UniProtKB/TrEMBL annotation:
Functional note: Catalyzes the reversible epimerization of D-ribulose 5-phosphate to D-xylulose 5-phosphate.
Residues noted as binding a divalent metal cation in the record, renumbered to the chain: H32, D34, H65, D174
CDD domains tied to this protein: RPE
Name of the molecule in the record: Ribulose-phosphate 3-epimerase
Details of cofactor binding: Binds 1 divalent metal cation per subunit.
Organism: Boudabousia liubingyangii
Keyword Ion transport: no
Record gene name: rpe
Catalytic activity, EC: 5.1.3.1
GO molecular function, one term: metal ion binding
Entry keyword set: Carbohydrate metabolism, Cobalt, Isomerase, Manganese, Metal-binding, Zinc
Length: 218
């Protein structure tokens, strides 16, 4: 059976109780960490010391999503900090291939994200350098926004290329993913789902993670 991954975004967790919040999501496949700089996106979150502390203090793989400017210069340090995967935005890289190779050399999996207005065609020459593609299903910057169903066409387009070329690359969606739309994203070809408010807004985050996985399979 196809394996679906669910990664809660700690953007929606209680920042004063992160350790306890992480205990509540031990059933997840990874922890999604949104790094924002108030420049590439109009919001500010964490930086390297937090990623290093997360890598030291808990067992789940860290799926680090960079929403910062100048990623060519800044992304490699996030690979060194102990991330399992480092997702760079196509729009914030001068040389995505070079940064992907550097991330891989430093021991993490490189992934590439596309903002809603960025077409899939930008991946034409560079896709195979990455282990995962992230199709943003909201404008990056904030949790709790509504899923953009028109992004599913991009998911379908990428999935069909992956199938055609038999590429083992994960396809992630991030933004507004809930139990009532996750099946649509899975049907379009996504196999890795980020969910912030759906998981941390629930009284029972562990149950919500199972619910999302079940709904993706439906
Ligand atoms: C948005 C972030 C997302 C966000 C998702 O820029 O990349 O990871 O936390 O939160 P929800 O699931 O609430 O849309
Ligand atoms: Zn994210």
């Amino acid at each position: 059976m196809k394996r679906f991954w669910v990664a809660p975004s700690i953007l929606s967790a209680d920042p004063l109780n992160l350790a306890a919040e992480l205990d509540r999501i031990s059933a997840a496949d990874a922890v999604h960490v949104d790094i924002m700089d108030n420049h590439f996106v109009p919001n500010l979150t964490w930086g390297l010391p937090t990623v290093e502390a997360l890598a030291r203090s808990q067992k789940l793989p860290l799926d680090v999503h960079l929403m910062i400017s100048d990623q060519d210069r800044l992304a490699p340090a996030y690979a060194e900090a102990g991330s399992e995967s480092v997702t760079v935005h196509f729009e914030a890289c001068q040389d995505p291939v070079k940064v992907a190779r550097e991330i891989r050399r430093l021991g993490a999996r490189p992934a590439i994200a596309l903002k809603p207005a960025t077409p899939v065609s930008v991946l034409d020459q560079i896709l195979t350098e990455f282990d995962m593609v992230l199709v943003m299903t909201v404008e990056p910057g904030f949790g709790g926004q509504s899923f953009m169903p028109e992004m599913l066409a991009k998911v379908r387009q990428i999935r069909s290329r992956l199938a055609r070329e038999n590429l083992d690359i994960r396809l992630q969606v991030d933004g507004g993913v809930k139990a009532d739309n996750i099946a649509l994203a899975a049907e379009a070809g996504a196999d890795f789902f980020v969910a912030g408010s759906a998981v941390f807004g629930s009284d029972s985050p562990g149950l919500e993670i199972s619910r999302l996985r079940e709904a993706a399979r439906a």
